[in-house]
Design a protein that fits this description.
By secondary structure, the chain is α/β, with parallel strands linked by helices. The chain is about 35% helix and about 15% strand.
């Protein structure tokens, strides 16, 4: 499950539509470098030239934002092309090989044949199961605490260190944080409005809690998480509470946002007899967040976050009649 763990015209144009610049050499003297992580330490002897971005999304996002095009990256199964739209526009004519990482075991022979000199896997859910195998192929960068628990800023800093681009990381982070701040400043009507944001997976509703990455971005835009949600118990999915059909009323807020993977999932939720009674539905303050925007919001990165904010802010303004 992807949720499981300009407002920016100018930022969107610069960050989401221009082709990737050619990879530039790392500064002299940057290597060797060792980057410790939970599953082990990646010791990189020289500047990587053949990066495999093995994680769900952000390993590729961050590398590309830093100006490094991977030779291969994990296939994004949520998208028909296998590549997230905010990445596609940045790749231009570059065509990294796509590796299906959705199986019980990664395709080690395919990965080895790529001859990577660095495997970035901070966004790999199953890394604990195959870190040793990856490390026999190439130095492998692990998360610090867990996938989707490390902040995107932390991951950006560490991936930059592994690539020899430490000096670029602060600017990439600042530009992304500045994009959110600009959107908040340009849309003061959002300030103080309550929200709920949920994703539906196999008929089950998961709503974000205060520590969730998507909740953080929404609060940075000036919104506040609905009090009815803030105290819900965390489910097995970190940062998310599971909401039963009988609990649907807890999703009520000044604006209620739901992302669905399919029209059938949406129809099933909206058929719930409690759904029309939500004040947000009555006021027209409920909306479906288009799936790619929901993924981008759930997995913030220097590429995904501006993309999410660009699409989300106009929808919020419409729902709140701002």
């Amino acid at each position: 499950m992807w949720g499981t763990g300009a407002a920016l015209a100018t930022v969107g144009a610069a960050g989401c539509s221009s082709p990737v610049a050619p990879t530039t050499p790392a500064p002299s003297g940057a290597f060797p470098v060792s980057v410790p992580g939970k599953e082990g330490t990646a010791t990189i002897p020289a500047e990587p030239n053949r990066l495999f971005a093995a994680g769900l999304q952000r390993d590729a996002d961050i590398a590309i934002a830093l100006g490094v095009t991977p030779v291969a990256m994990a296939k994004a199964a949520s998208f028909t092309s296998g590549i997230a739209p905010w990445v596609e526009t940045r790749l231009g004519q570059s065509k990294p090989e796509l590796v299906d990482m959705s199986g019980a075991q990664p395709p080690l022979e395919q990965i080895a044949a790529l001859e990577p000199d660095l495997i970035s896997a901070v966004d790999d859910y199953a890394l604990a199961n195959h870190y040793a195998q990856f490390s026999r192929i190439a130095p492998t960068l692990s998360y610090v605490e867990a996938q989707n628990i490390d902040t995107w800023q932390q991951s950006t800093t560490r991936i930059a260190q592994a690539l020899g681009r430490e000096t670029q990381a602060p600017g990439v982070i600042a530009a992304t944080e500045g994009a959110i701040a600009q959107a908040a400043g340009d849309n003061p009507g959002l300030r103080g409005k309550t929200f709920s944001f949920s994703v539906v997976y196999s008929g089950v509703i998961y709503t974000v809690l205060p520590g969730d990455a998507a909740a953080v971005v929404l609060t940075q835009l000036g919104l506040q998480l609905a009090p009815s949600i803030a105290g819900l118990p965390e489910s097995a999915t970190k940062g998310r509470a599971q909401v039963s059909a009988e609990q649907l009323s807890v999703l009520d807020a000044d604006v209620t946002i739901v992302s669905y993977p399919t029209p059938a999932e949406r129809a099933a939720i909206e058929r719930n007899p409690l759904f029309p009674s939500l004040d947000a539905v009555k006021r027209g303050a409920y909306f479906e967040l288009e799936f790619s925007l929901g993924v981008a919001l759930a997995f913030p990165s220097p590429l995904a976050t501006p993309y999410a904010v660009n699409g989300l802010v106009p929808a919020l303004n419409r729902a709140l009649s701002l």
